[in-house]
């Protein structure tokens, strides 16, 4: 067993004793207590930060993190899913404009290449802390009134269902791990070394027509996903 992994295991026991929000003792003191080098201790702490067990605050220290938010892999509102876990959802609009569909986007939305597409990019937050960057694409031809009826910081799903009469039926979602770009890391207040979860989703209505194409990037230290599997 690598030494830093053994140290990491002992640190997890310490975190459980300290409790949520508690400050981690200084790296030098922990290294001396555990009888290891500062490099080994630093490596163990970095992995626990990446795992979401610790949170580093610049100029303040390292603290025991709150548990990860577990989101369902389902066609449900981000707002409702977060509130169900006792968290206050938030959205900050980064971009809300129109672009021309490229080949891939046109295929996902069932439209012609070059046709206009709504692009809505928002930073998602939980209790005021950024956790995700979501970019949603919808056909302008199908939803010409979207910009007039959507409150950009509100629930897009609620707007589509309640005001535009959309009925979600099914979707496909691909999940992979990536490294954030410098821009994405800045928007999420994270370092580029922090693991990210990237979700690609295509949704369809009850008639089988494409509704949206969504690209969602989530901080791997703050969010996890759960799916219900049936034979």
TrEMBL record:
The keyword Zinc-finger does not apply. Gene3D superfamilies: Chorismate lyase-like, Winged helix-like DNA-binding domain superfamily/Winged helix DNA-binding domain. Residues 1-67 form the HTH gntR-type domain. This is GntR family transcriptional regulator. Transmembrane segments: none annotated. It holds the Pfam family GntR. GO terms for molecular function: DNA binding; DNA-binding transcription factor activity. SUPFAM superfamilies: Chorismate lyase-like (SSF64288), Winged helix' DNA-binding domain (SSF46785). One of its GO terms (biological process) is negative regulation of DNA-templated transcription. Keywords: DNA-binding, Transcription, Transcription regulation. InterPro entries: Bact_HTH_transcr_reg (IPR050679), Chorismate_lyase_/UTRA_dom_sf (IPR028978), Tscrpt_reg_HTH_GntR (IPR000524), UTRA (IPR011663), WH-like_DNA-bd_sf (IPR036388), WH_DNA-bd_sf (IPR036390). It comes from the Bacteria.
């Amino acid at each position: 067993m690598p030494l830093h992994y053994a140290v990491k295991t002992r640190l997890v026991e310490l975190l459980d004793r300290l409790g949520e929000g508690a400050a981690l003792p200084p790296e030098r003191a922990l290294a001396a207590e555990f009888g290891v080098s500062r490099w080994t201790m630093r490596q163990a702490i970095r992995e626990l930060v990446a795992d979401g067990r610790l949170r580093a605050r610049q100029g303040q220290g390292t603290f025991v993190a709150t548990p990860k938010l577990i989101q369902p892999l389902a066609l449900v509102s981000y707002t409702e899913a977060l509130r169900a876990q006792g968290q206050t959802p938030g959205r900050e609009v980064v971009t809300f404009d129109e672009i021309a569909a490229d080949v891939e986007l046109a295929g996902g939305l069932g439209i012609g290449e070059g046709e206009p597409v709504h692009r809505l990019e928002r930073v998602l937050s939980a209790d005021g802390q950024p956790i995700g960057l979501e970019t949603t694409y919808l056909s302008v031809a199908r939803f010409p009134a979207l910009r007039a009826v959507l409150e950009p910081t509100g629930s897009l799903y609620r707007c589509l269902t309640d005001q535009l009469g959309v009925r979600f039926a099914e979707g496909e979602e691909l999940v992979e791990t990536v490294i954030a770009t410098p821009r994405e890391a800045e928007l999420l207040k994270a370092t580029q070394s922090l693991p990210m979860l990237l979700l690609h989703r295509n949704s369809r209505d009850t008639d089988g027509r494409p509704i949206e194409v969504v690209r969602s990037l989530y901080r791997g230290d703050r969010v996890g996903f759960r799916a219900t599997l049936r034979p």
